[in-house]
Amino acid sequence: MSGSDELFTEESFVYTCKQVGLTSQEMDEMNISQCLDYIQEWIDNNDTENGTKKATKAKQENFDAF
């Protein structure tokens, strides 16, 4: 993510979560850190600046961590 002088408000947090596809129920089940991690992963995997989209295959350790 790039730096900005703009405040990250509750409204902008919810908006960003919705933009990456998180539902209200998912946000209720996650803490803020988990939501931010999800947002970062979404950004990393949907990099349109390079014109590529990374796809990763889930491993057993991913499911265990979830």
Summarize the structure.
This protein has helices at about 10-20, 25-30, 30-45, 60-65. It has about 70 residues and is an all-alpha fold. The chain has a domain at about 10-45.
Structure overview:
The chain is mainly α and 66 residues long. The chain has a domain at 8-44. 55% of the residues lie in helices and 0% in strands. The chain contains 4 helices and no strands. The protein has helices at 10-19, 24-29, 32-45, 60-65. The longest helix has 14 residues, at 32-45. It comes from Pseudolactococcus carnosus. This is Phage protein.
Low-confidence spans: pLDDT under 50, at least 5 residues? none
Distance between the amino and carboxyl termini = 24 Å
Radius of gyration: 14 Å
Would you tell me the overall average pLDDT? 84
Strand portion, in percent?
A: under 5%
Helix content: 40-55%
Q: What is the β-strand count?
A: 0
H/E topology pattern: HHHH
Largest sheet: none
Structural class: mainly alpha
Shape: globular
Put simply, the count of helices is 4
Q: Helices and strands in order, then pairings?
A:
Layout: H1 10-19, H2 24-29, H3 32-45, H4 60-65
Organism: Pseudolactococcus carnosus
Region (Disordered): 47-66
Protein name: Phage protein
